[in-house]
Amino acid sequence: MEVELKLILSYDSHYKFRTLFREFQTSNSFYHNLFFDNETQFLRASKSRLRLRMVQDLHPDEIFGEKEEEYLYTDAIVCVKSKGKWHQDVHSVEEIETHIDPSLAKMMIENPANFETLDIPPIEKIKTLAEHVPFAEFVQLADFENTRKCFKIPHFPHLVFELDESVFPNGERRYELEVEFSAEDASEESMAIKEFLDSHDIEYEPATTSKSGRLWSILGLKNKKKKRNKRN
User: Fold this and answer.
1) CA distances from 162 to 24, 48, 59, 209 (A)
2) Tens digits of per-residue pLDDT, 11-43?
3) SS3 146
4) What is the dihedral of CA 77, 79, 84, 86, to 10 degrees?
5) What residues contact residue 217 under an 8 Å CB cut-off, 6+ apart?
6) What is the pLDDT of residues 90-133, one digit of tens each?
7) How many helices and strands in the chain, by DSSP H and E?
8) Residue 228's pLDDT band (boundaries 50, 70, 90)?
């Protein structure tokens, strides 16, 4: 179970955070997030999502795309998530993920039906959703990109602060801070983190939807409801 505090930032707050805590930054990565399903949205109807995340490591201050040469992906992650639940600004969701070789991931992108051949926990989870899962019908339904800078701040040595900048297909940018912690510590940790941000005058708003939820909203993709046969 993934339990995260999700806070929406303005550009100014995003810039202030990464500037104040620059010395505690541990990584900088580019993510290309691709979502797969069939045209009738079998997975969404089953309250699940299949995401393939292509990962490129960046230099600490690098912005993806500023170089002319081609980037090589260094990692790929297959992930299946269930429909999440919100409690104020804390989001919890069942998540199963597995790292795979980027060259293998490219085969999934070229032909999404290949997902069925992967012998990994996320795909095994999908196979439990129905007697027949329509892998042959899978297509890439949507995608978005984001950069993520991770920070280990001494005040919270047990936590990783993830500072995101996401770009959606319509050009919309979303700035966000995410911090994952255990479910039993959620309330206490969430309050402590927000008090810490307040003490540094970093403004934020509670997130009301996940990145993928925002993506679906932008693209106008809705859950497909199964039709019931009416008896005469």
Assistant:
1) 12, 24, 16, 17
2) 999 999 999 999 999 999 999 999 999 999 999
3) strand
4) -10
5) 209
6) 878 889 999 999 999 999 999 999 999 999 999 999 999 998 99
7) 6, 11
8) very low
Residue by residue, what is the 3-state secondary structure of 82-98?
Answer: ECCEEECCEEEECEEEE
Tell me the sheet residues that pair with 31.
Answer: 55, 146
Q: How far apart are CA 35 and CA 100, in angstroms?
A: 16
CA 68 centroid distance within chain: 27
DSSP assignment, residue 111?
-
Strand ranges in the chain using DSSP code E only, listed in sequence order: 2-9, 25-37, 48-57, 75-82, 85-87, 90-93, 95-100, 139-151, 161-167, 173-180, 205-206
Confirm if 14 and 137 have CB atoms less than 8 A apart. no
Please say whether the beta carbons of 18 and 149 come within 8 A. yes
Residues 6+ apart with CB under 8 A from 157: none
DSSP annotation string for 164-176: EEEE-TTS-EEEE
Residue whose pair of structure tokens reads 């393939």 in the numeric block: 52
